[in-house]
# Entry
Amino acid sequence: MSGKENAQRMEKIVSLCKRRGFIFQSSEIYGGLNGVWDYGPLGVELKNNLKQYWWQVMVRERDDVVGLDGAILTHPAVLKASGHVDTFTDPMVDCRTCKARLRADQLAEKNGARQCPNCGGKDLTEARPFNLMFQTQMGASADPASIAYLRPETAQSIFVQFKNVLDVSRKKLPFGIAQIGKAFRNEINPRNFTFRSREFEQMELEYFCRPEQGMDLLAYWLKERIRFYEEIGISRKRLHVLDVPEKERAFYSKGTFDIEYEFPFGRQELEGVAYRTDYDLQQHIKASGKPLDYFDEETKERFVPHVVEPSAGVDRTVLALICDAYDEDSAPDEKGKMETRIVIRFHPRMAPIKCAIFPLLRNKEALVAKAREVQALLRPHMNVFYDEGGAIGRRYRRQDEIGTPFGVTIDFETLGEKGEGLRDTVTLRDRDSMKQERVAIKDLPQLIPSKIR
Ligand code: ATP
# Structure
């Protein structure tokens, strides 16, 4: 796809997200808050499906991982020890012509001279570090002792609670602590829709191990995480693994892989899988004076565990899910004329709505009553949507456009008007093939979930 086609594709995706209620700009009626987004009725379902599936495979299906839900407000000592207070910075340059503040690594260059990408000006300041953390005030007094930070990553509360979790869970190495939650970074240039936001969510696992297991577990987690993306329906051919070269890794990391996705705006990081050695725990031991070590009952050794960290972004994965699934094909309209159909081919596991329920006609009481019965039957099993408005073809299109994998239509056959054999059967339509099959209502609660898994 050409650059122009990719830009058009992205425009269509952003507009669909707003039009159908996946993602809105935050505080839109006041002009919007830059780099901050709200998820609408469909967006929140998609996001929840993603988070729940991550939690299912990373925590519930494993004996060696437990969960944590840490606070967002963070003690400054934690982030001082982790290095965030002193070094979590981006080098920034100001353009003296248009006053834009720019990331030093995003400057344009012309004939070897640095140039402002906004106005083309060449009068730029030297690069200065800019801390990406949001600082806030706890309590009424405004002295330095009342400073707190909104966490820039979820990982630190896991390290700080390592000992408590170890004691209560009685896990043996290797074992992990997982967390999903908000993180905040005062990004200089939030851009590419939700890709780089100032408020976002992370899904992180800190997997603690013996030092000699670190490199093998790094390879293991990379594989597991790629499998995860395939299982949620992201095509393998658009996923790439970057083996981050030593000079670009954090100094304490012995190996880092970035899992990247080919977004319409370019190949960008979805998740980092990093072997962080014992750096974080050692930092907190030094700063707090508390023993965050591990005693191996069998070998009688006491040591500080090493850690492998798969760290994924919820918002970036949601965006990748939408970009990957967005498609256009053609389908016949009411009169049989072919028209362009927008279809989001979400994996059924991720789809915000699993099944739409349509009475063929809204003014036939018996059809509506039966459709409501089917809705009540399916509701405990999945997220369903009832729609009686407009021609049936239009209703199908509306669901295709939001990725609903199944549609059930209640028609006159269902009422037994075309022979007793068809009574209490409905048509089950498949979003991708648009094929319909006739199935018994009573089979739906088993049949549809069997196609979702
Ligand atoms: P980038 O280089 O893109 O800024 P990073 O390497 O700083 O990302 P990490 O600190 O490794 O990111 O954070 C882990 C994950 O959290 C990222 O892979 C990404 O999915 C997510 N993430 C980080 N920053 C943002 C952001 N500003 N907006 C949305 N998601 C983010």
Summary: The mean pLDDT is 95. The first strand starts at residue 23 and ends at 25. The first helix runs from residue 3 to 19.
